[in-house]
Specification:
Shape of chain B: globular
Distance between the termini of chain B: 41 Å
Largest sheet of chain A: 7 strands, mixed
Strand content of chain B: over 45%
Radius of gyration of chain B: 14 Å
Helix content of chain B: under 10%
Distance between the termini of chain A: 37 Å
Oligomer: heterodimer
Structural class of chain A: mainly beta
Structural class of chain B: mainly beta
Order of helices and strands of chain A: EEEEEEEEEEE
Helix content of chain A: under 10%
Largest interface: A-B, 27 and 26 residues
Order of helices and strands of chain B: EEEEEEEEEEEE
Chain lengths: 114, 114
C-alpha cells in the first residue's frame, strides 16, 4: 500500500506570496493532520481534518488554512508568506479519528520563503 | 495543556553499546505516549506507542520504552545500537480528548559511530 504522499517536495516563494501544499493520505485513511517543523520551534500541530471537517486547530494565525476533500486528500494554504514560514510541512494520515490512532507521516514539503 | 521534555539534544554512542533516550512529560489529564524516528530528509515513522496495559512496550527493531506514571517518563532504550539507528528521535503525547493533536518534544539526535 502506498504511503502518504506530499506535493511538491520543495518550494521557494517570496514574502507576500501565497502557497498551497497538497497531501494524499494512505488509501482508506480518513483523518489527515498537518504539522510544521522548524529548527527553532520544533514540531507544531497545525490542524486535523476528518470527513472534510476541521476537528482541531493549533495556535497559528489565520493566514494558515486547510481543507479536506471527499476523497480524503487535503490541502493547506498559507497566505501573505513571511520569512518565518520557512519550514518543513508534514502531513500525517490515520485510519480513523481518535488520539490513540497511529499517524503515518509523509516525507514533507520543504518551503523556503525569501 | 501538555508538554514534553527531551533533555538530551544529542547522544553520541558507539556501535553495539546500549543507549537510553530520555523523555518526560507534563499533563493534567491522561495521555497516550509515542516515540517517532526521523531519518535525514524523511518524514516521521512510529517506533512504538503506549496506550494502556503493560507499561513496557517494544518495537520490531529492538527498541523498548517503559511508561512510568509516577515519574511521568517514557524513556526509550536499546541494548545494542547499530550504525543504521543514527537518526533523530521524537517523544510525543496526545491526550484523551479524542483529537489527534500530537505534542512533540524537541528531539534527540542519536549519533552511532563505529
Amino acid at each position: 500500500k502506498a504511503g502518504v504522499t506530499q506535493t511538491p517536495r520543495y518550494l521557494i516563494k517570496t514574502r507576500g506570496q501565497q502557497v498551497t501544499l497538497s497531501c494524499s493520505p494512505i488509501s482508506g485513511h480518513r483523518s489527515v493532520s498537518w504539522y510544521q517543523q522548524t529548527p527553532g520551534q520544533g514540531l507544531q500541530f497545525l490542524f486535523e481534518y476528518f470527513s472534510e471537517t476541521q476537528r482541531n486547530k493549533g495556535n497559528f494565525p489565520g493566514r494558515f488554512s486547510g481543507r479536506q476533500f471527499s476523497n480524503s486528500r487535503s490541502e493547506m494554504n498559507v497566505s501573505t508568506l513571511e520569512l518565518g514560514d520557512s519550514a518543513l510541512y508534514l502531513c500525517a494520515s490515520s485510519l480513523a479519528q481518535g488520539a490513540q490512532e497511529t499517524q503515518y507521516f509523509g516525507p514533507g514539503t520543504r518551503l523556503l520563503v525569501l | 495543556a501538555q508538554s514534553v521534555t527531551q533533555l538530551d539534544s544529542q547522544v553520541p554512542v558507539f556501535e553495539e553499546a546500549p543507549v537510553e533516550l530520555r523523555c518526560n512529560y507534563s499533563s493534567s489529564v491522561s495521555v497516550y505516549l509515542f516515540w517517532y524516528v526521523q531519518y535525514p530528509n524523511q518524514g516521521l515513522q512510529l517506533l512504538l506507542k503506549y496506550l494502556s496495559g503493560s507499561t513496557l512496550v517494544e518495537s520490531i527493531n529492538g527498541f523498548e520504552a517503559e511508561f512510568n506514571k509516577s515519574q511521568t517518563s517514557f524513556h526509550l532504550r536499546k541494548p545494542s545500537v547499530h550504525i543504521s539507528d543514527t537518526a533523530e528521535y521524537f517523544c510525543a503525547v496526545s491526550d484523551y480528548t479524542g483529537f489527534q493533536k500530537l505534542v512533540f518534544g524537541t528531539g534527540t539526535r542519536l549519533l552511532v559511530s563505529p
